[in-house]
Amino acid sequence: MERTAQLIFDQLLMQSGSTVALDVRSRFPGGRNVGGKYNIADHKVTMYVGEIKKQCLSLFGSLEAFPQILRIVFAHELGHAEDANLQELSDLLDHCDNEQERKRIALRIEENAWDYAKKLIPEEDQSIMQTVIYYSLKSYREAIAGEIA
Prior knowledge:
By secondary structure, this protein is mostly helical. It contains six helices and three strands. The protein is globular.
């Protein structure tokens, strides 16, 4: 499985042309189930492979789709790394006093990364991709919907 993960990372890095640094770990520190994280300050993606396995089991009941999920999550993190608007959006997020607007900016940041991922790996199984995207964005969209209701 480790070899498969490395092949996926290498292939997507080459395909994207990204110069982002990559760190691979098993677990995300703390109690959240985070599959990957992009750090804008050092232009580095950290992938949490054990967390992605948990996500795979939770969403699909087995590890059968693990390579696809890993590929989808990494493509999303590359989307953050390659987002030309991320710095501006991050600055807006940092200086925003309106909670509703903060939630909208956070959602825009995530949607931008998913838009990139969909373009990077259009051949990916769409039912798996849409499921991952749906659950990834669910809390962001619910936060905004809760403010409106």
